[in-house]
Every structure is written in structure tokens, then in C-alpha cells.
Design goal:
Elements: E1 6-10, E2 20-22, E3 27-31, E4 38-42, E5 48-51, E6 57-59, E7 65-75, E8 81-92, E9 97-98, E10 102-105, E11 110-115, E12 119-123, E13 129-131, E14 135-138, E15 144-151, E16 157-167, E17 171-179, E18 187-195, E19 200-204, E20 210-212, E21 215-219, E22 224-234, E23 237-247, E24 250-251, E25 255-256, E26 271-272, E27 284-289, E28 295-299, E29 314-322, E30 326-334
Parallel strand pairs: 2-8, 10-16, 25-30
Antiparallel strand pairs: 1-3, 3-6, 4-5, 4-7, 7-8, 9-11, 11-14, 12-13, 12-15, 15-16, 17-18, 18-21, 19-20, 19-22, 22-23, 24-26, 27-28, 27-29, 29-30
Length: about 325
């Protein structure tokens, strides 16, 4: 008696009759023929395998497609002599795909993405799961290889690696100093240090002014709160250090009108913008003198509370020291 019989299976022999697999998977081919002295396997891709026994063997297709597998059993000592049986298997190409390798800047987020799956798993080199989404924001601190596993709707799995090449960060520090004149806004000096391997650096004063280098001096044209930055560039990465700097004029009055009915301008007020200099951490020292240089009033911690109430109308002189800012001398009038 001669009867050809075959069965497809997984390599673990736990999926008998399997007719669909993913490219890269290994197929087990089992021979359950009765009789037969010679067996020829035709695998549908021009591959032929000849065997003299019924032991199973494995095969892996190189390309996706639908393949007809035929087993021919031969035994010339039987009445039939030759018998054959066929089945079909479909080899699917996994549709999951990860993005290409990426360049990144240290401590700056980068978006990573994959596609074609119904489930995803992103892992770092330590095996920790970073995300189960197709796309996520990753904050790299060093160069490393991330592994993404993509499960598609056909049950195929793609495991890919996305290499992240991180440009090392620059270490940026700077100080800001203000130099006041007796009138007008201060001159601001930024003194900085950019450590690492910068290609370029510049100071951004926050008012549209940018100066190449790590140190620069600038005079603002208006009061305000400005974000001052020292920026360093290496490769395509920008790193910066920033500080908000309030820029205000120090104002000394040229006239006071104590005792007038409007109640305005009654005191000799030294201002930093609209505030007292104490708001910038400065103490005010004040002397009021007459035209002969005689001190009429003095304070080492002036609080904008002198009105000249005991003085007659006229011209007087001031000596103002806003500690760590300016020293100014000038004249003012008391008008009654």
C-alpha cells in the first residue's frame, strides 16, 4: 500500500496544519505517508528535498508569498508506484517598521516613532520599558540603542533597534553686572563661560540684540524685564543658560513740592523704576546740602521719607549713593 501524507507544523510541533506564517519563521514539514521508499518534497520556490525516511525537517522561506508544498512518495514495489499530496502555506512579510537612527541633543527631548503595528514596546539597553505607544518623546542623556518590538495584525513580530547618537551638552555659566550713570538706563555686561566643544556662542540680551562670543556689553533703550541668555552651539544642538533681568532707571528728583494741596511730590524720592532701590537689594545713602556745602540732612539707609519740611523754598544740593549702583551729585528745588 502506498499513500502520501504530509503535515505542516511549527518548529515546536504544536501547530499542526499551520498554513500561515511570518517571513523569517521556520516551518516544520512532517511526513505521515504509508509505504514509500523514496520521498521528494517540492516546496514551491524551486526547492526540492529528497529523503529516504519519514523524519520531519524544517525550512525557512526567503521571500513572502503563497507556496504550494507537494510531497511525492515513490515505491515501485506497489501497485500504485507513485502517490502525491499537496498543501499551501502563505508567508507574510511583517509590516512593522521603526524609524531610522537619530541624532539627538543631550537633555533635549526627541520624538521616536514606529508604524505598522497594533502593539508596541520600546526598551532601553537595560531592558526597561520606556513606552508602549507607536510614538513617544524620549529624553536622552547619552548615546544608546533602543529596542522596539512591533506586533502587527497578522501576528508577525518585528524587533528593531534605533540607535540614538547624542551630542554632549555644553556647560554654560554667566554673570550680569549693571553700571549706572546718574541719568538713563544702565549699561549691562554679561561675562560668560562655555565649556565643552562649542562651535559658536553668543549673548542674547532679550531685546533683539545678539552679540557673538560669550561676553558682551549692551545698553538698553527701554525699561522692562528681559530674558538674558548665553547660548552655545555644537553640531546642530543649542544649549543655553538664561536669567530674567529687570532693567530700570535710577531716578533722582530735580524738584519736590512739599505741603502743596495736591499731596503729590512731597518727598525726595530716589527710585529704581517705580520701586525703591531696596527692591534690587541696594541701600541708599543720602545727604542734603545748602549752597554753602553745609549738610542739612543725612541718612545711611534712606527710606524716601525726607520732605524738607523745615527748609525754605529754593535750590539745594544732594549727594546720593545707591550702594553697588551709582554715586551722584546734583541740585534740586524745593517749591512751596
Amino acid at each position: 500500500m502506498l499513500r502520501a501524507a504530509l503535515q505542516t507544523n511549527s518548529v515546536r510541533l504544536d501547530q499542526p496544519g499551520i498554513n500561515q506564517l511570518c517571513l523569517g519563521d521556520t516551518l516544520a514539514l512532517q511526513n505521515f505517508s504509508i509505504g514509500g521508499r523514496l520521498f521528494e518534497w517540492r516546496l514551491g520556490d524551486a526547492t526540492k528535498v529528497t529523503r529516504i525516511d519519514t523524519s520531519f525537517f524544517t525550512y525557512r522561506y526567503r521571500f513572502p508569498g503563497t507556496y504550494r508544498i507537494t510531497l511525492v512518495a515513490v515505491d515501485q514495489g506497489t501497485c500504485k508506484g507513485v502517490d502525491s499530496v499537496s498543501t499551501f502555506v502563505r508567508v507574510l512579510a511583517p509590516v512593522g517598521e521603526a524609524q531610522s537612527d537619530a541624532l539627538a541633543c543631550a537633555r533635549q527631548p526627541i520624538q521616536l516613532s514606529a508604524s505598522g503595528g497594533i502593539r508596541y514596546q520600546w526598551q532601553n539597553e537595560g531592558g526597561n520599558v520606556l513606552s508602549t505607544q507607536p510614538s513617544f518623546m524620549f529624553l536622552p542623556s547619552r548615546s544608546e540603542a533602543l529596542r522596539v518590538t512591533i506586533f502587527d495584525r497578522n501576528g508577525c513580530v518585528v524587533v528593531d533597534t534605533v540607535n540614538i547618537d547624542v551630542t554632549p551638552a555644553l556647560s554654560i555659566r554667566f554673570t550680569i553686572e549693571e553700571e549706572f550713570g546718574c541719568f538713563g538706563l544702565p549699561t549691562v555686561t554679561v561675562t560668560g563661560d562655555v565649556q565643552g566643544t562649542p562651535d559658536n556662542s553668543w549673548v542674547d540680551f532679550g531685546d533683539g540684540t545678539r552679540v557673538p562670543g560669550s561676553s558682551a556689553t549692551h545698553r538698553y533703550q527701554a525699561e522692562g524685564a528681559f530674558v538674558v541668555k548665553l547660548i552655545g552651539q555644537t553640531a546642530d544642538c543649542l544649549y543655553d543658560s538664561a536669567a530674567v533681568r529687570p532693567i530700570r532707571d535710577i531716578k533722582v528728583p530735580n524738584v519736590i513740592t512739599p505741603g502743596t494741596v495736591d499731596g503729590q511730590n512731597d518727598f525726595f524720592q530716589v527710585k529704581w523704576g517705580d520701586e525703591m532701590p531696596a527692591a534690587r537689594g541696594s541701600r541708599v545713602e543720602l545727604k542734603i546740602l545748602n549752597r554753602w556745602g553745609i549738610t542739612l540732612y543725612a541718612s545711611d539707609d534712606y527710606q524716601n521719607d525726607w520732605s524738607g519740611a523745615d527748609l525754605t523754598a529754593g535750590v539745594y544740593y544732594y549727594d546720593v549713593n545707591v550702594v553697588d549702583a551709582i554715586k551722584c551729585r546734583g541740585w534740586f528745588q524745593i517749591v512751596r
